[in-house]
What we know:
Strand content: 15-25%
Amino acid sequence: MPADSDIDRFDSRRSTVYASGGVVATSQPLAARTGARVLEDGGNAFDAAVATAAALAVVEPMNTGIGGDVFSLYRTADGDVGGMQACGRAPASASYDDVRHDVAEEQGADPESVSELPAKSPHAVTVPGTVRGWEATLERHGTRSLGDVLESAIRYAREGYPVTEVIGSAWGRAEELLRADEDAREEFLRDGRAPRAGEQIRHPHLGDSLAVIAEEGADVVYEGAIADAIVETVQDRGGHLAVEDLAAFEPMFVDPDSVEYGGTTVYELPPTNQGPVAIGALAIADAVEARSRPYESADRVHAFAESLKRAFHDGRRYIADPDAASVPVLHDRAYARRRADEVCPTATDVSAGDPPMRGSGAENADTVLLCVADGEGNVVSYINSLFHGFGSGIVAEGTGIVLQNRGACFSLDPDHPNRYEGGKQPYHTLIPGIVRFGSDDWAAFGVMGGYMQPQGHLQVISNLLDYDMSLQHALDAPRWRYFVDGTLGVEERFPAPVATKLDRRGHDVRVRQPWLFGGGQIARYDGGVLSAATEPRKDGIAVGF
Length: 545
């Protein structure tokens, strides 16, 4: 590890939480407490993950919900490492030509000039994978029923909860979107406005939907009354989603991709998720020996940022549904060395060209992440999302369920691997993470925020492994972020002398708002000792017992 006294002087804002029974870290205190209560009552990390995710679907409704998708990476107490992708597809009957024509007609444009699917279009609504994913998690790895773990979420929805500060701010930015939909206004606004921090709010229709799911299981969302409401709402707005699309959906359990870095193994989800961007960036950074630079130096940030740029552009160019496109192995060591050879002392362009989908909103989309570890050795990184704040802005009539707009991640460029096709999975920004420090030392981690996610993974892993930071310190440390317009964003707390030197190296450095730099969580099991951390960019806490 490079010696650097500045690391020791960094004043972390919180302490790492240590426990022996179980730990939960997430972005909202009531949700974290929900998961911890499940652990205290004898449930395992998978039970707690679903309970926490369901609570978040109520208390952080702009970022997650029943109408979205869910992904996980995990290490079980038995030593198995795996992943789940509960990612909905585009409607099977929706053709590329029809959707492109519909979008062009809405915009009054020539279809040949349309390359992106609007984020608030009914065509951006894909099959929601969340509830099937929750149920599959419990059936494969949990010890509790879906009805059991939904109890707290139902109570918060029906009885109400006070809105927290960061969530209240994000809610306020969505007021105009919510006013445009009658069901959204009724369920998520108070007297025509978003609730403010400290105000109590209820979601009665959402509470009823959760109660029906608790009683009847996931089938009601995919083949029952809730499925009918979702389909009717989307079709009334001109979308192609059909009951058959929902009924056909099943989550996939997959083998993660991984890369060796700093004596550890870092695991990410394979395509259609952007996990290969994170481990591709780690492989390139390893090849340029980025870790050898002092922490408080422009050399370090430059080396890591240039590595990330290349992996990011490669990912945006190649990652797509693997059933429909051939995706190269972006973390291949030989390929990483070739990309590393392009890294110069100054900022450079990259060979894969501009990232597509500039207008999709993927850059600044947000979501929720929770990490759980229990005393048996299970560790779970679990992610749920609607993509944009309140997704498509469309609420299925009478259900309180916000429908995601993940289809906006498709390209309408006919030559792109990720182009829109019926029955296809879109590119997904969501990436949970797992790291193996040793044979009995594992951590679940992640950093949220659209295209910030692989960048946050890169920086947090480096902080932990290259600079020997504690879990909390690794999350607190000021971050940088590469944006698709080519600028390099830095937080206000970022050292000014380092930012100035980066500017001199050719980086277009901009100070950006803190909420653009993600929201990270970590939960670790180390030989029976549990630890966890969350970060002050969100409202959340880490809870242990």
